[in-house]
């Protein structure tokens, strides 16, 4: 079943917090993964792998570069879920 | 016993997490009390693998969750987690020395490396496919991962090294650290060993070699070096770290010196992939080399922490090696086999036992060898049994032995700080 945007944000924030220690509350839609949250590429890839598992979607390597902000990732996961449904 | 000052290395910090305790103090107190770190394996493992020959091991006394953050745990293999815990304690114990990054090195050994990470990644690959394998898998499984984690934390830039010589690894790292200082390549070296590989795979594999004790009905008495009824070693896990420092650097900053690493000896048997050379010739050469390196004579030695894993063959070969190296002076040496309490920490064993050896010369007391009810008549050593034994006062010298599959022999000679 597809998740709401809020559920995806909360799930993503949890993954970011687990990986980096950044409080989940700081993971907000407009935040940039690199500039605001200071997440390096290795951590970003870890979050992507874990997000694929958590939401049961595929995020191809080519798509990861386009995920600049948290909103980009939430939208990508949401669209991927919709495409599957 | 003169010892040229410029070749002597000060040991200014110690850290450990072991089956006996979460730090050096609790580990040492438990060792002097003759405690055992043996614990049952996870019930889920025993249920899933009912044919496992061994149902216990010496597990860490303090969970890593009490020392590390969730992020640190997720980003490090257990071997890296244990190393970071022991290195942090050692660094703090040394007073977090101010040292130029280009003069600070790390030598952190592991005998096995990131086994858990490797196996978990393989399970993930099988169950979920390649795109679920985590990107940190390689940095976590590589044997130098623990050394690199410490090097990163301390900003060490004089080199980060990981000697790998099976169960001699931890001692070899300390020997390598001494070399770096003596060659003028570093002033301070964080050195030790780590191992975190207790798993059904290793239990099955060591079991297949007939290397493990199968005393499942009396697990705290399974590790019994030198006893006639010994039947193999008990797997252990953990890490030990020391901070080595050039004597000049340590004295200049007024550091507390726990003891002196006077000499190191490293040899190889060239004999067999896993069995020790039965007369102990290679091990004896390592002991003699360590003493010669420290300008010490056999008669200077009051205590020896033996490798003594509790295997039928290994314990006898080492006993012969000790007598071959020390000759008549052997009879005056108080021998301790602390694996009777800690189990065998494999790549961390040499580092933890170096710490025990150092504490013995510092505090003037040799820890007991537990479970020694009937000493093997082929082992003619003066073994410290049941109770700790006081060592003579004055300048004390002790040797630590560590040997590994592949025919690796390392001996470290420590003396008390004057």
From TrEMBL, chain A:
SUPFAM superfamilies: ACP-like. Keywords: Cytoplasm, Fatty acid biosynthesis, Fatty acid metabolism, Lipid biosynthesis, Lipid metabolism, Phosphopantetheine, Phosphoprotein. Belongs to the acyl carrier protein (ACP) family. Pathway: Lipid metabolism; fatty acid biosynthesis. Its main location: cytoplasm. 4'-phosphopantetheine is transferred from CoA to a specific serine of apo-ACP by AcpS. This modification is essential for activity because fatty acids are bound in thioester linkage to the sulfhydryl of the prosthetic group. The keyword Amino-acid biosynthesis does not apply. InterPro entries: ACP, ACP-like_sf, PP-bd_ACP. Coiled coil: none annotated. It comes from Kineosporia mesophila. The modification O-(pantetheine 4'-phosphoryl)serine is found at residue 41. Signal peptide: none annotated. Residues 3-81 form the Carrier domain. HAMAP family: Acyl_carrier. This is Acyl carrier protein.
TrEMBL record, chain B:
InterPro entries: Beta-ketoacyl_synthase, Ketoacyl_synth_C, Ketoacyl_synth_N, PKS_Beta-ketoAc_synthase_dom, Thiolase-like. The keyword Lipid biosynthesis does not apply. Transmembrane segments: none annotated. Residues 6-416 form the Ketosynthase family 3 (KS3) domain. The keyword Transferase applies. Pfam families: ketoacyl-synt (PF00109), Ketoacyl-synt_C (PF02801). Keywords: Transferase. Belongs to the thiolase-like superfamily. Beta-ketoacyl-ACP synthases family. This is Beta-ketoacyl-[acyl-carrier-protein] synthase family protein. It comes from Kineosporia mesophila. The lineage of its organism: Bacteria, Bacillati, Actinomycetota, Actinomycetes, Kineosporiales.
